[in-house]
């Protein structure tokens, strides 16, 4: 069933956000996308976004009709005030606080606040994000409790009734691949495999069975393992 609500999808150009976009297009009558340039080391994800959006449109006339404006927001301030492996050329490692140094403090909090502001201006009442608590790197801003708290705070602060949707929250990467197949068949799986970007190091030299990437960073390992579990189950 398609709902009449309008949704704004946090769309980075990666696997999770591409799956969330398909999920929203299958569910909502009006969908827009938002991306953030925060000085990320893997900024190549931003360069794949336009073609990925166009190819997503081509998968379905209904999706094409529902997919509206894309918003690209400059959040370079975040890169300037953070010191992480995603915003600087440093080796990926664990920190003394138990979190990997790929964690960008405040990133999702800022993303959701800015997205809510854009949604307010655009008359959209649902925010869709690819946060996940099942297959993640321990990022506290990806937790379900964080998203629920943000929904309350945003609505209190803007006198709105925004709903925050996180369709991947309780599924692993293999299930994320399966969800893509359910939403758009093999065509969507192939699009996500070849046209999205996940690798933290920005590597797009070789197309693996699971997509482009270095194959060694945490993002690549998670994506590759999930794809192979998905592929094994699909046989």
In short:
By secondary structure, this protein is of the alpha/beta class. The chain has helices at residues 15-25, 44-58, 61-66, 76-81, 107-122, 144-158, 173-195, 218-234, and strands at residues 3-10, 28-37, 67-74, 126-128, 163-165, 207-208, 211-212.
Structural class category? alpha/beta
Major sheet strand order: 3-2-1-4-5
Strand content: 15-25%
Specify the helix fraction band.
40-55%
Name the overall outline. Answer: globular
Poorly predicted residue ranges: 85-90
Main β sheet profile: 5 strands, parallel
- The total domain count is 1
Could you give me the name of the CATH homologous superfamily?
A: HUPs
The chain-level mean pLDDT equals 87
Number of helices: 8
CATH topology: Rossmann fold
Describe the structure.
Its cofactor is Zn(2+). It catalyses: 7-carboxy-7-carbaguanine + NH4(+) + 2 ATP = 7-cyano-7-carbaguanine + 2 AMP + 2 diphosphate + 2 H(+). Belongs to the QueC family. This is 7-cyano-7-deazaguanine synthase. The protein is an alpha/beta fold. It is built from 8 helices and 7 strands; from the N terminus they run βαβααβααβαβαββα. It has helices at about 15-25, 45-60, 60-65, 75-80, 105-120, 145-160, 175-195, 220-235, and strands at about 5-10, 30-35, 65-75, 125-130, 165, 205-210, 210. The chain has a 5-stranded parallel sheet, with helices on both faces. Strand 1, helix 1 (about 15-25) and strand 2 form a beta-alpha-beta unit. The relative contact order is 0.16.
